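Hey team,

Sharing the Putative chromate transport protein run so nobody has to redo it. Sequence (353 residues) first:
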Amino acid sequence: MFVLPSLFILIALSWLYIAFGEVPVVAGLFYGIKPAVTAIVVQAAHRIGSRALKSNWLWAIAAASFTAIFAFNVPFPLIVLGAALIGYVGGRLAPEKFRAGGHSAAKKSFGLALIDDDTPPPEHARFSWLKLALLALVGTVLWALPMGILTALFGWEGTLTQMGWFFTKAALLTFGGAYAVLPYVYQGAVGHYGWLTPTQMIDGLALGETTPGPLIMVVAFVGFVGAYVSQVFGADHVFLAGAVAASLVTWFTFLPSFLFILAGGPLVESTHNELKFTAPLTGITAAVVGVILNLACFFGYHVFWPNGFSGSLDWPSALIALAAAIALFRFKRGVIQVLIGCALVGLAVHLLR
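Structure output:
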């Protein structure tokens, strides 16, 4: 249920964005928000990195993942797989280097708690192969039924069918949260399928940052804009197409996550002190830092050099981003406060030009 308010809000905002995105006031607000989002992504990389990168090995994994995706455009799934493999091998060769963060960290007392790491899990939360099989069966049915209907109605190559398949894959790769998977979403939605432009992708993240709910809900914007522009239901029903696509994309994104929690939670609790399970996750977390930093570079390039490096630097955008970074890092201001302030500054700059 916590997803529905965000979904409805993003459907409405996505329609307003398409209908009125060129209006000077709206364009001005986005002009200020986009540099702020760049600073927010940098802060996210710093926040995760400060917790996760506790050894030289993990720093090396983060640097390698950044180089792989930035310089060689290596797909995110391969980066995750490689980081997990390095973490597994590293956990055996140098176990102390891969105990940073997560359940595998050194024990630390946080005071008394009703349920702590030493509390046995209740009966309903204990791992069971039968429960796992039942959840896998239910999840497969809940995924296959709408996917089968979409395939029957629109064919496998249909826009809605491909959205369902693509965001299922994206959901299976959401290690590290929305910031980590957004480069993969960009590669598919913008680079492969052409559902959005790079500018629209950045604007979508800006909308996601300014609305309540999890940031991964930005996928609803991707679905709405992609189906709206593609006119999958015809020119007379573009809003309906966008709303249906946003809902389907949200379903296919969150279904695997909920199943992982319900099915994998008991398994994680039963293995949280075993390094062979936690070390790969530690490696993946380190790689995610590099991926998020790449996302910040991607945003910075499109925001600060809208016409490419052959054009001039957009100094107002750069200064807004610098001010946002100072507010976030130095003065510890909240994200919403920073976004509102930058939006107002961007509006003023845009109207005065």
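The mean pLDDT is 90.

Ping me if you want the raw files.
A.
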